[in-house]
Design goal:
The protein has 168 residues and is mostly helical. It has one domain. It contains 7 helices and 2 strands; from the N terminus they run H-E-E-H-H-H-H-H-H. It has a two-stranded antiparallel sheet with strand order 1-2. Strand 1 and strand 2 form a beta hairpin. It is globular.
Protein backbone atom coordinates (compact mmCIF):
# COMPACT_ATOMS: atom_id res chain seq x y z
CA UNK A 1 0.00 0.00 0.00
CA UNK A 2 1.29 3.43 -0.91
CA UNK A 3 1.58 6.22 1.62
CA UNK A 4 -0.98 8.37 -0.19
CA UNK A 5 -3.52 5.53 -0.18
CA UNK A 6 -2.95 4.92 3.52
CA UNK A 7 -3.46 8.62 4.29
CA UNK A 8 -6.68 8.71 2.26
CA UNK A 9 -7.93 5.61 4.06
CA UNK A 10 -7.11 7.15 7.44
CA UNK A 11 -8.83 10.43 6.61
CA UNK A 12 -11.86 8.61 5.25
CA UNK A 13 -12.14 6.45 8.36
CA UNK A 14 -11.80 9.52 10.59
CA UNK A 15 -14.54 11.33 8.67
CA UNK A 16 -16.88 8.34 8.87
CA UNK A 17 -16.24 7.96 12.61
CA UNK A 18 -16.80 11.70 13.19
CA UNK A 19 -20.07 11.73 11.25
CA UNK A 20 -21.28 8.51 12.88
CA UNK A 21 -20.27 9.74 16.33
CA UNK A 22 -21.91 13.11 15.80
CA UNK A 23 -25.10 11.50 14.56
CA UNK A 24 -25.08 9.06 17.44
CA UNK A 25 -24.57 11.88 19.94
CA UNK A 26 -27.66 13.60 18.57
CA UNK A 27 -29.75 10.44 18.66
CA UNK A 28 -28.51 9.01 21.98
CA UNK A 29 -26.70 11.65 24.03
CA UNK A 30 -24.67 10.61 27.06
CA UNK A 31 -26.13 13.41 29.15
CA UNK A 32 -29.66 14.79 29.06
CA UNK A 33 -30.36 17.95 31.00
CA UNK A 34 -26.92 17.63 32.57
CA UNK A 35 -27.73 14.18 34.00
CA UNK A 36 -26.32 10.83 32.89
CA UNK A 37 -28.47 8.66 30.67
CA UNK A 38 -28.77 4.93 31.36
CA UNK A 39 -26.05 4.17 28.78
CA UNK A 40 -23.69 6.71 30.37
CA UNK A 41 -24.23 5.11 33.78
CA UNK A 42 -23.32 1.71 32.31
CA UNK A 43 -20.08 3.18 30.91
CA UNK A 44 -19.10 4.93 34.14
CA UNK A 45 -19.99 1.92 36.28
CA UNK A 46 -17.72 -0.26 34.14
CA UNK A 47 -14.94 2.35 34.20
CA UNK A 48 -15.28 2.50 37.99
CA UNK A 49 -14.92 -1.28 38.20
CA UNK A 50 -11.68 -1.02 36.22
CA UNK A 51 -10.21 2.10 37.80
CA UNK A 52 -11.25 1.41 41.38
CA UNK A 53 -10.49 -2.32 41.40
CA UNK A 54 -8.89 -3.10 44.74
CA UNK A 55 -10.48 -0.14 46.52
CA UNK A 56 -14.10 -1.24 46.14
CA UNK A 57 -15.60 -3.43 48.88
CA UNK A 58 -15.06 -7.16 48.38
CA UNK A 59 -18.62 -8.10 49.39
CA UNK A 60 -20.85 -8.07 46.28
CA UNK A 61 -23.77 -6.28 47.96
CA UNK A 62 -21.49 -3.64 49.49
CA UNK A 63 -19.67 -3.31 46.16
CA UNK A 64 -22.91 -2.63 44.27
CA UNK A 65 -24.00 -0.13 46.94
CA UNK A 66 -20.65 1.67 46.68
CA UNK A 67 -20.90 1.79 42.87
CA UNK A 68 -24.47 3.14 42.99
CA UNK A 69 -23.45 5.82 45.52
CA UNK A 70 -20.48 6.65 43.27
CA UNK A 71 -22.75 7.05 40.23
CA UNK A 72 -25.04 9.36 42.23
CA UNK A 73 -22.09 11.57 43.28
CA UNK A 74 -20.77 11.57 39.72
CA UNK A 75 -24.18 12.49 38.31
CA UNK A 76 -24.45 15.40 40.77
CA UNK A 77 -20.94 16.54 39.82
CA UNK A 78 -21.65 16.44 36.09
CA UNK A 79 -24.88 18.40 36.57
CA UNK A 80 -22.82 21.28 37.98
CA UNK A 81 -20.45 21.42 34.99
CA UNK A 82 -20.74 24.25 32.44
CA UNK A 83 -23.00 23.50 29.48
CA UNK A 84 -20.04 23.34 27.02
CA UNK A 85 -18.25 20.74 29.15
CA UNK A 86 -21.45 18.73 29.49
CA UNK A 87 -21.89 18.80 25.72
CA UNK A 88 -18.39 17.46 25.06
CA UNK A 89 -18.73 14.77 27.70
CA UNK A 90 -22.16 13.84 26.34
CA UNK A 91 -20.66 13.31 22.90
CA UNK A 92 -17.84 11.17 24.31
CA UNK A 93 -20.25 9.03 26.32
CA UNK A 94 -22.60 8.62 23.35
CA UNK A 95 -19.70 7.50 21.19
CA UNK A 96 -18.16 5.01 23.60
CA UNK A 97 -21.46 3.56 24.78
CA UNK A 98 -22.09 2.26 21.24
CA UNK A 99 -20.23 -0.84 20.06
CA UNK A 100 -18.35 0.81 17.14
CA UNK A 101 -17.11 3.69 19.28
CA UNK A 102 -16.28 1.46 22.22
CA UNK A 103 -14.29 -0.81 19.96
CA UNK A 104 -12.54 1.96 18.02
CA UNK A 105 -11.91 4.62 20.64
CA UNK A 106 -11.61 2.52 23.79
CA UNK A 107 -10.33 -0.72 22.28
CA UNK A 108 -12.84 -2.78 24.27
CA UNK A 109 -14.58 -5.43 22.17
CA UNK A 110 -16.82 -6.71 24.98
CA UNK A 111 -19.96 -4.89 26.14
CA UNK A 112 -19.32 -2.59 29.08
CA UNK A 113 -21.54 -4.63 31.40
CA UNK A 114 -20.01 -7.97 30.40
CA UNK A 115 -16.38 -6.84 30.47
CA UNK A 116 -14.23 -7.96 33.37
CA UNK A 117 -12.16 -5.53 35.42
CA UNK A 118 -8.90 -6.76 33.78
CA UNK A 119 -10.40 -6.29 30.29
CA UNK A 120 -11.48 -2.74 31.18
CA UNK A 121 -8.08 -2.00 32.71
CA UNK A 122 -6.31 -3.25 29.58
CA UNK A 123 -8.53 -1.10 27.35
CA UNK A 124 -7.97 1.96 29.54
CA UNK A 125 -4.22 1.33 29.54
CA UNK A 126 -4.35 1.20 25.74
CA UNK A 127 -6.08 4.58 25.73
CA UNK A 128 -3.56 6.02 28.19
CA UNK A 129 -0.54 4.96 26.14
CA UNK A 130 -2.09 5.66 22.73
CA UNK A 131 -0.29 7.88 20.26
CA UNK A 132 -3.60 9.62 19.55
CA UNK A 133 -4.22 12.63 21.79
CA UNK A 134 -8.00 12.13 21.55
CA UNK A 135 -7.78 8.67 23.10
CA UNK A 136 -5.49 9.97 25.86
CA UNK A 137 -7.86 12.86 26.61
CA UNK A 138 -10.82 10.50 26.78
CA UNK A 139 -8.89 8.23 29.15
CA UNK A 140 -7.96 11.11 31.45
CA UNK A 141 -11.54 12.41 31.49
CA UNK A 142 -12.97 8.99 32.38
CA UNK A 143 -10.33 8.21 34.99
CA UNK A 144 -10.23 11.64 36.61
CA UNK A 145 -14.01 11.96 36.86
CA UNK A 146 -14.23 8.46 38.32
CA UNK A 147 -11.55 9.07 40.93
CA UNK A 148 -12.84 12.52 41.87
CA UNK A 149 -16.40 11.33 42.42
CA UNK A 150 -15.41 8.17 44.30
CA UNK A 151 -12.87 9.74 46.62
CA UNK A 152 -15.10 12.75 47.34
CA UNK A 153 -16.80 10.39 49.80
CA UNK A 154 -14.83 10.08 53.07
CA UNK A 155 -15.66 6.34 53.18
CA UNK A 156 -13.28 5.80 50.25
CA UNK A 157 -10.35 7.50 51.93
CA UNK A 158 -9.36 4.50 54.04
CA UNK A 159 -8.53 2.53 50.88
CA UNK A 160 -5.80 5.11 50.24
CA UNK A 161 -4.61 5.22 53.80
CA UNK A 162 -5.78 8.83 54.05
CA UNK A 163 -7.08 9.60 57.56
CA UNK A 164 -8.87 12.74 56.43
CA UNK A 165 -8.13 16.41 56.89
CA UNK A 166 -6.36 17.53 60.02
CA UNK A 167 -8.45 19.32 62.58
CA UNK A 168 -6.76 22.62 63.36
Amino acid sequence: MQRRTLLKLGLGATAVLAVAGGGLALLRPGLEGGRMTASAKVVFKAVARGVLDGTLPKDEVAREAALEAHLKRLDDTLAAFPRATQSELSQLLALISAAPGRSTLVGLHTDWEAATAPEIQQALQGMRTSSLAMRQQAYHALRDLTNAAYFADPQGWSALGYPGPLII
